[in-house]
Design goal:
This is YubB ferredoxin-like domain-containing protein. The protein is α+β, with helices and mostly antiparallel strands. It folds into 2 domains: about 5-45 and about 150-235, Api92-like domains (Alpha-Beta Plaits), CATH 3.30.70.1270; about 50-140, no CATH class. It is about 40% helix and about 20% strand. It has helices at about 15-25, 55-65, 75-80, 90-95, 105-110, 115-120, 125-135, 140-150, 180-190, 225-235, and strands at about 5-10, 155-165, 165-175, 195-200, 205-215, 215-220. The chain has a 6-stranded antiparallel sheet with strand order 2-3-1-4-5-6, sandwiched between helices. Helix 2 crosses helix 7. The radius of gyration is 24 Å and the shape is elongated. The N and C termini lie close together (about 10 Å).
Length: about 240
């Protein structure tokens, strides 16, 4: 079960200031015409990062990042192809039979037959995309990019949005962690309004509040059971033991 985090975002300013913020806060394709918090509206994840994360591709990525003239050793093969479905014993026999001596020769041999890749739990095509993404963006997939640029690994799940013109309040859920990185970027992008971000981790049972006004951040963090419980109830109407 993922660690669900409840979040509340409040922004206060003039109607003109709030209207300027909305395109960076809400998605363009909200369900049923309703507003939805969308982290991509502020910081868009590159399309090439929207690829699956797999062990086979990671295994290929490691091979591709090694110098091609790296000597091939039995201990490396046993450690690298350690998946129970990778047929290590058979792979070692084939390497010896084909007189494969280096990493480059091994990669070339795999490229000659897609069935070999599949048989030994390797995905060179996806692995190459990981390498290219790592060089260009510093991350292999959207999962790591989200963590770095948003502070959480998936987009928001909107619960409620209250738009009063000069004040907007958004309740939304995230998985694993609170999107503090995204919130701080919002504040830096729009420093002339007042921001409040409150969050509560259900599984981690911690909570916090960040206030931003006049270009100054103030942080509160709660970890004691009673203060977290009181905070969760006051802000999110949550009682310990409630379901998500």
């Amino acid at each position: 079960m993922p660690d669900w985090c409840k979040n509340k975002l409040t922004v206060c300013g003039s109607e003109a200031e709030i209207d300027a913020i909305k395109p960076f806060l809400f998605g363009k394709h909200s369900r049923a015409g309703e507003l939805e918090v969308d982290f991509n509206a502020l910081e868009v994840c590159p399309e090439s990062l929207s690829i699956p994360f797999t062990d086979d591709a990671t295994r290929a990525q490691i091979l591709l990042m090694l110098p091609e003239d790296t000597p091939l050793r039995e201990s490396f093969i046993q450690g690298h192809f350690n998946d129970e479905d990778a047929n290590v014993a058979h792979l070692l026999m084939e390497i010896k039979h084909h007189n494969i001596k280096t990493i480059g020769e091994l990669i070339k041999w795999f490229m000659e037959d897609n069935e070999r890749e599949f048989k030994h739990c390797l995905d060179l095509k996806l692995g190459r995309q990981y390498v290219a993404n790592l060089i260009q963006f510093g991350q292999e997939t959207c999962h790591d990019w989200h963590e770095k640029h948003w502070g959480t690994n998936l987009n928001a799940e909107t619960r409620l949005i209250d738009d009063e013109g000069k004040e907007v309040i958004c309740f939304f859920d995230t998985t694993c962690s609170e999107p503090k990185v995204w919130f701080e970027l919002l504040c830096q992008r729009f420093p002339h309004v007042e921001w409040v971000f409150e969050y509560f981790s259900i599984n981690g049972f911690y909570a916090g509040k960040i206030h931003f006004k006049d270009k100054i951040f103030s942080y509160q963090y709660f970890s004691e059971y009673s203060e977290v419980g009181n905070f969760a109830y006051d802000v999110f109407d949550y009682i310990d033991g409630d379901e998500k």
